[in-house]
Amino acid sequence: VQLQASGGGLVQPGGSLRLSCAASGFNLDYYVIGWFRQAPGKEREGVSCTGGSATDYYADSMKGRFTISRDSAKNTVYLQMNSLKPEDTAVYYCAARTLHCYSDYLKYNYWGQGTQVTVSS
After folding, report:
1. Residue 107: other Cβ atoms inside 10 A
2. DSSP element (H, E) containing 12
3. How far apart are CA 19 and CA 22, in angstroms?
4. Contact by Cβ (8 Å): 112, 83
5. Count of alpha carbons within 13 Å of 11, Cβ hemisphere only?
6. Neighbours of 43 (CB within 10 A)
7. Binning pLDDT at 50, 70 and 90, where does residue 108 land?
8. φ, ψ for residue 75 (rounded to 5)?
9. How far apart are CA 93 and CA 104, in angstroms?
10. How many CA atoms, within 13 angstroms, populate the side-chain half-sphere of residue 48?
């Protein structure tokens, strides 16, 4: 089971980025995929997740700005991030688990490497 996150970069406030989480060795359709982020000196926090029996989850500060989606043909989950703010600056990670969507990173079994997102003018 491998996950690879990509798509980070430097963007100005108000800009957009799309992060990708590509899976190899397993079918993402059978897993819950979560996006998390960790800023320097802060704890890792849940951003969004998709899969399982519930509707997609978004942390309150991301609602209306971020959208999670899944492309089964590419075995990839995306995180579209719009209206980015400097406080969105962090390393973003994707992770997988079975059954249910959780915002708690400790509940995820499989992790990809992070991708840096920097929002700055």
Report:
1. 15
2. none
3. 10
4. no
5. 22
6. 7
7. very high
8. 50, 45
9. 13
10. 22
Residue 101 has a pLDDT of 92
Task: Tell me if 15 sits within 8 A of 88, measured CB to CB.
Answer: no
DSSP for 62-105 reads: GTTTEEEEEEGGGTEEEEEE-S--GGG-EEEEEEEESS---S-G
Residue 54's pLDDT is 74
- How far is residue 12's CA from residue 89's CA, in Å, rounded to a whole number? 11
73: its two tokens: 């043909």
Amino acid identity of 3? L
CB 71 within 8 A of CB 78: yes
- Identify the three-state secondary structure at position 49: strand
Rounded CA-CA distance 84/118 in Å is 9
Structure tokens, 83: 């209206």
Q: Which two tokens stand for residue 77?
A: 């989950």
